[in-house]
C-alpha cells in the first residue's frame, strides 16, 4: 500500500503541473514517472480524486485524456459532462464530441517548452 500511495502522489505532482488549456495522456505521465507500463495505474490514481471537491484545484485530472485524445475518464467526475466543460472553458479544442485536439494541446513534461507538440 505504501508503494501505491507514493505512486499516486507522484502522479498528482505531474498532473498539478499541466498548464490550463493543455492536456496530457496517461502514457505520457507514466513515462514521466519512469514507469512506461503504468498507464492504468495513472488512471487509477486519477479516478481516486476525479469526483472530489478539491480535485479541480489541487489535481486538475480533467486535463488527462487517453492516447487518442478521448475523454475516457469523464465517467468518474461528478457529472458526465464536467470534464468536457472544464476543458472547453480552458480553450481546449475538440476534433470530435469526446476527443480533444492532441496536436494542438498536448503537454509533455519531458519535452522542452518551445518544442512543438506531437501526437502520442
Automatic annotation (TrEMBL):
Keywords: DNA damage, DNA repair, Methyltransferase, Transferase. It comes from the Bacteria. It holds the Pfam family DNA_binding_1. Coiled coil: none annotated. The keyword Calcium does not apply. The keyword DNA repair applies. It catalyses: a 6-O-methyl-2'-deoxyguanosine in DNA + L-cysteinyl-[protein] = S-methyl-L-cysteinyl-[protein] + a 2'-deoxyguanosine in DNA; a 4-O-methyl-thymidine in DNA + L-cysteinyl-[protein] = a thymidine in DNA + S-methyl-L-cysteinyl-[protein]. One of its GO terms (molecular function) is methylated-DNA-[protein]-cysteine S-methyltransferase activity. Residues 6-92 form the Methylated-DNA-[protein]-cysteine S-methyltransferase DNA binding domain. One of its GO terms (biological process) is methylation. This is Methylated-DNA-[protein]-cysteine S-methyltransferase DNA binding domain-containing protein.
Amino acid at each position: 500500500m505504501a508503494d501505491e500511495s507514493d505512486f499516486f502522489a507522484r502522479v498528482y505532482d505531474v498532473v498539478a503541473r499541466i498548464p490550463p488549456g493543455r492536456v496530457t495522456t496517461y502514457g505520457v505521465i507514466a513515462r514521466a514517472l519512469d514507469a512506461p507500463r503504468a498507464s492504468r495505474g495513472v488512471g487509477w490514481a486519477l479516478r481516486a480524486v476525479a469526483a472530489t471537491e478539491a480535485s479541480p484545484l489541487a489535481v486538475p485530472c480533467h486535463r488527462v485524456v487517453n492516447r487518442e485524445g478521448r475523454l475516457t475518464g469523464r465517467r468518474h467526475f461528478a457529472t458526465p459532462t464536467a470534464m468536457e466543460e472544464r476543458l472547453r472553458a480552458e480553450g481546449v479544442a475538440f476534433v470530435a464530441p469526446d476527443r480533444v485536439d492532441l496536436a494542438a494541446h498536448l503537454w509533455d513534461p519531458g519535452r522542452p517548452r518551445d518544442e512543438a507538440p506531437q501526437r502520442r
